[in-house]
Amino acid sequence: MPTVLLAVGHGCVDIFQGIVPVMVPFLVAERHYDYVAVSGFVLAATVLSSVVQPVFGLLTDRWVMRWLVPAAMVCTGLGVALVGAAGSYPLALAAIALSGIGVAAYHPEGARLARVVTGGDHVRMSWFSLGGNVGFAFAPVIATPVLVLGGLAAAPVLLAPALLGVLVTVPLLRRRAGGAAPAGGATRAGTAGSAATAGAAVGGRGGARRGADDWPAFGVLTGVIVLRSIAFVGLSTFLALFVQQRVAQDATAGGIALFVLYAGGAVGTWLGGRMAATWGRLPTMRVSYAASAVALAGVAFVPGPALLAFVGLASLALYAPFSLHITLGQDYLPSRIGTASGVTLGLAVSVGGAFAPALGAIAQASSIQVMLGCLIVLPVLCAALALRLREPSAPARL
After folding, report:
1. Is 169 among the domain residues?
2. 250-263 pLDDT per residue, tens
3. H/E element, 173
4. pLDDT score of 116
5. How many structural domains compose the chain?
6. CA dist 244 to 28, 148, 251, Å?
7. For every residue of 93-106, which 3-state class applies, written as one string?
8. Domain for residue 16, yes or no?
9. Is residue 161 within a helix (H) or strand (E), and if so which, with residue range?
10. 109-131 pLDDT, tens digit each
11. Per-residue confidence at 8, pLDDT binned at 50, 70, 90?
């Protein structure tokens, strides 16, 4: 049950990252922004998150900060809600940036709690990741009808999932905080010894098996995550507009495409955990990224509604390694679990936004189809980098 509740909370945060691409066609239609301008919203939502998130990871390595989880949920929802009230482009950017800060604040501590609850098990960690991806999947289902009926002025209604997340998570955090933290709010996880103490206190398992931090391998893994993030952000940001151009000229068609993308991500995360349990993490990553390249080619060049099938395949393949990035990163940096979580889980959904304006400029200068075609090379590079990785010799276990 604790894993389920944390997964629900994760979904209530990540739904807002899914809502930003849903807003893109409405921002174009109501406020007449071009492709470069709307990509700036993705930049504001994600780059600030990717920069700040490792900082939160360092803080949670040093101090117990469970209060950060519900506080981040409120911040994330409030940022999206304020977009409707923002009367200028800079104010709208600031509102979206506030949402990005909330995402950054949530993930390191949320991932740490999930690690404790699941014991680092690949399948159970995939359920925590699945919660976030289910949140992504529900974003167009929830946001599209609200925005179709009320326009951007109805954005404050979208604060509701954040409030639900707080209601679900706070009782769990209170219960765990009551017996989990060392007396006096002592620091934890800054070293192997303190992490083992925290693991014993929170999980009741006692004694953690730790290996040496492998920063070179973690750096290569981070490169994989960055490239994957650029590919997914480019696809998700412009997919709704692309489908409206190629399939049907209405916002509902774009919302359906985003639902397929995000729902496929939820299934892909679940599938990736099971593939890793059978064949191993690194083989799963390599095959998934090779399949992603083929799927992205289908999205860009297959005509008509058939492209939706390739959207689903691309989503499955891009998300199958999602939870594996987290556990690999934690195993490469066993004495820096919070830092590893902040980078792997945070960068996985955020750093690609730094490249959104460049992708928007390509789309503006040529077409969205050309931009999508450029994304094909990214998972190929991911697969090549994954060939350089090896399984950690002594995985961290809480």
Report:
1. yes
2. 777 888 898 999 88
3. helix 160-180
4. 67
5. 1
6. 13, 15, 7
7. HHHHHHHHHHHHHH
8. yes
9. helix 160-180
10. 777 777 766 666 666 677 777 78
11. confident
Query: Given this model, what pLDDT does residue 230 score?
Result: 93
**Residue listed under structure tokens 């070179």:** 216
> If you average pLDDT over each of 43-47, 101-105, 245-249, 319-323, which comes out highest?
319-323
d(CA 347, CA 354): 11
Residues contacting residue 267 through CB under 8 Å, at least 6 positions apart: 315, 316, 319
CATH label of the domain that carries residue 194: 1.20.1250.20
User: 209: helix, coil or strand?
Assistant: strand
The CA dihedral of 202, 206, 209, 215, to the nearest 10 degrees, is 20
What's the token pair of residue 163? 């409030």
| pLDDT higher than 80, residue 308 | yes
- Cα–Cα distance between 218 and 335 in angstroms, integer? 13
**Cα 383 → chain centroid:** 20
Tokens for 223, please give them: 């490169």
Q: Residue 195's pLDDT is what?
A: 31
Q: Which residue has the tokens 């399949």?
A: 291
Instruction: Compute CA distances 316 → 260, 296, 298, whole Å.
Output: 10, 11, 14
Indicate whether 393 belongs to any domain.
no
HSE-up (13 A, CA, CB side) for residue 2: 19
- How far apart CA 120 and CA 117 sit, in angstroms, is 8
- Its domain, for residue 21, covers 2-386
Taking the C-alpha atoms of residue 291 and residue 316, their distance in angstroms, rounded to an integer, is 9
Is residue 391 situated within a structural domain?
no
Instruction: Residue 214: name the closest of 347, 53, 340 by CA.
Output: 340
pLDDT at 90 over 60: yes
Give the pair of three-digit tokens for residue 135: 């949140």
